[in-house]
Design a protein that fits this description.
Strand content: 15-25%
CATH topology of the largest domain: 2-enoyl-CoA Hydratase, Chain A, domain 1
CATH superfamily of the largest domain: 2-enoyl-CoA Hydratase, Chain A, domain 1
CATH class of the largest domain: Alpha Beta
CATH architecture of the largest domain: Alpha-Beta Complex
Number of helices: 10
Helix content: 40-55%
Length: 276
């Protein structure tokens, strides 16, 4: 069977990102806080495309810190291991962060982190290697042996990164059962170091709908407005005995009193009722 022809056909049918890649690298020169961001938010080479391009771009990063943000269902075991090793070999301090899901080969890439973070509600899935193969019975038996070998290698990576008394056999059993881990479950098993819950953008207190009266008064300039009203009232002449407050001695309206009254009414119209 022509495997190259089959791979080419599958590659043509595979959905790809708009830029032809499933990863993104930002701040490679460390311009933003000397931390580069590598985002893997798609399949990891599901149709046999080499991880060579990823490793080549990774080599261009000169930042002292790299954060790898992951949300991936996995993909090729060989490319997953290649990416794992390229990250482990990079001189930068690597933080891997599971934003949503790190399944299959993506869970291997998580283990490349010097510090491994599970975001709140993130999940990780580990399972035995599997694949499709067309060939004779002997070829299929050989392929099954290859899958077993890959699974043992992956279990060894998990055990080495988990540390403690957890062995490759322990992880192989979990892989055979196809184990899904919660954020804290991944930490408990040693496949992550911490669970991170994003803090609110701004702490607005217990009651986010409460308006501080003093802040509102200052913002509206009510104190300054009240002082202006007092000044206007001070300029209004005292009314003559027996005459209305807003008229002169000859009975005509006092223009200053009228203006002050109009201004005061306008102020009262825009002042809370309890202050009127």
């Amino acid at each position: 069977m022509d495997l190259e022809a089959l791979r080419a056909k599958l590659r043509e049918r595979a959905p790809r990102a708009a830029n032809g890649r499933w990863f993104d690298i930002k701040n490679a020169d460390g311009a933003a806080g000397d931390t580069a961001v590598v985002r893997i938010y798609d399949y990891i080479d599901p149709w046999g495309v080499s991880a060579e391009g990823f490793a080549a771009e990774l080599d261009t990063i000169t930042a002292s810190k790299i954060e790898v943000q992951i949300n991936s269902p996995g993909g090729s075991v060989w490319d997953g291991i290649a990416i794992f090793n390229s990250l482990r070999a990079h001189p930068a301090h690597i933080t891997t962060r599971v934003d949503g899901m790190a399944a299959s080969a993506a869970s291997v890439i998580v283990q490349a982190g010097d510090h491994r973070v599970m975001m709140h509600a993130g999940q990780m899935m580990i399972h035995d290697a599997w694949g499709m193969f067309v060939g004779s019975a002997d070829e299929m038996r050989t392929f099954a042996d290859v899958l077993d070998q890959q699974s043992s290698i992956i279990a060894g990576i998990y055990a080495q990164r988990a540390g403690g008394d957890r062995t490759a056999d322990t992880f192989r059993e979990l892989m055979l059962a196809e184990t899904w881990l919660t954020d804290q479950g991944a930490v408990d098993l040693g496949l992550a170091d911490e669970v991170l819950t994003p803090a609110p953008a701004k702490d607005q207190g217990d009651n986010k709908n409460t308006i501080d009266a003093d802040e509102l008064r200052a913002a509206l300039g009510l104190d300054e407005l009240a002082a202006k009203v007092d000044d206007l009232f001070a300029k209004i002449p005292a009314p003559a005995a027996g005459t209305p407050d807003s008229t002169l001695e000859d009975g005509t309206p006092d223009p200053e009193a009228t203006a002050a009254e109009s201004f005061l009414r306008a102020v009262l119209a825009h002042t809370p009722g309890e202050n009127r």
